[in-house]
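Tokens in:
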């Protein structure tokens, strides 16, 4: 996928709302990290740009901001694309196993009935709906809840890759290299029909076309979520068993790193 963001924007076949290119100001970044709209997004704009992605090479994202500073991170350029590794360079099973070993050792009560031993990746789900169509519907729902989100465009072949390509630092208190985070999301795209929808200062929203329908299946996915974003569990119910209940038939997974 070309990283020539200005060139890709120039070849778009649909009109864009007013916006601008943003460069990361924390790294040695000569190329723009992403394009950001000036005004809030609409479901129609997101849906149109999503449909254009296979031809345009520009992946659309809903962009939220820090709750008390609407300029961060996008307008301030708090992005480090040049420092992120390639998502394809990492094995998601290895990555999650390492994180699990680190967090489960300190919080065994939270991860019952699993032990310190990594339970392994969850089996692929049954994709019963079109992932892209579901993503468009979920994007509309997220905009209904928070209509202030803007639209972002990143030169990336898939949503997971867009996380690293734009240099997003949301999980920085957990993992500085977003390429590693993106490797796990890539695996979810393949196994559960996940589509990246939106990013905030430290938030990630994805749609899920193959959500677990049984608690037993949700438990294995919950283990992955705990390794990926322990704050989801530790700053929520505090118990993996309870967290898994909320994953059953859930079409949106939300992650937040403290």
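Residues out:
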């Amino acid at each position: 996928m070309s990283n020539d963001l200005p060139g890709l924007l120039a070849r778009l076949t649909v009109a864009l709302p007013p916006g601008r290119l943003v460069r990361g100001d924390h790294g040695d970044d000569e190329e723009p990290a992403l394009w950001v709209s000036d005004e809030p997004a609409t479901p129609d704009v997101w849906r149109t740009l999503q449909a254009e992605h296979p031809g345009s090479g520009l992946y659309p994202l809903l962009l939220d901001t820090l709750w008390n500073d609407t300029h961060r991170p996008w307008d301030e350029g708090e992005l480090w694309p040049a420092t992120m590794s390639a998502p394809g360079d990492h094995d998601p099973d290895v990555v999650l196993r390492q994180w699990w070993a680190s967090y489960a050792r300190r919080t065994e009560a939270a991860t019952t009935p699993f032990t310190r031993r990594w339970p392994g990746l969850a089996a692929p789900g049954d994709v019963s709906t079109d992932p892209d169509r579901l993503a468009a519907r979920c994007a509309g729902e997220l905009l209904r809840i928070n209509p202030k989100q803007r639209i972002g465009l990143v030169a990336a072949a898939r949503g997971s890759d867009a996380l690293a390509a734009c240099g997003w630092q949301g999980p920085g208190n957990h993992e500085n290299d977003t390429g590693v985070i993106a490797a796990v999301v890539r695996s979810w795209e393949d196994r559960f029909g996940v589509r990246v929808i939106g990013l905030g200062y430290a938030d990630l929203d994805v749609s899920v076309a193959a959500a677990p329908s049984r608690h037993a299946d949700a438990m294995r996915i919950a283990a992955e979520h705990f390794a990926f974003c322990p704050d989801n569990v530790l700053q929520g119910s505090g118990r993996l068993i309870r967290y898994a209940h909320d994953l059953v038939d859930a079409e949106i997974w939300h992650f937040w790193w403290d």
